[in-house]
Design brief:
Pfam families: COX6B (PF02297). Helix content is 49%, strand content 0%. The chain has 71 residues and is mainly α.
Length: 71
């Protein structure tokens, strides 16, 4: 697993939204994989920390059934 340091830059949604989108998908995949094994899902929070400002928007789309990604 990739080690995160305090020097890891946050994802800039304006400049690199496709990378942010992938991190958001990875967040959900990580949660699903660890939860299926009854393991702690807190390591998955790292992915979500890379997409500030977009998480709420994409969570809403999931709830509405309009999210364009496959989770």
């Amino acid at each position: 697993m990739l080690e995160v340091t305090s020097q890891t830059p946050p994802c800039d949604a304006c400049l690199n939204q496709s990378k942010c989108f992938q991190n958001y998908l990875d967040f959900h995949r990580c949660n699903n994989a660890l939860a299926a094994k009854d393991q702690d899902i807190s390591p998955c929070q790292w992915y979500q920390s890379l997409v500030p400002g977009l998480v709420g928007k994409w969570d809403e789309k999931i709830e509405q059934g309009t999210f364009p990604g496959k989770i």
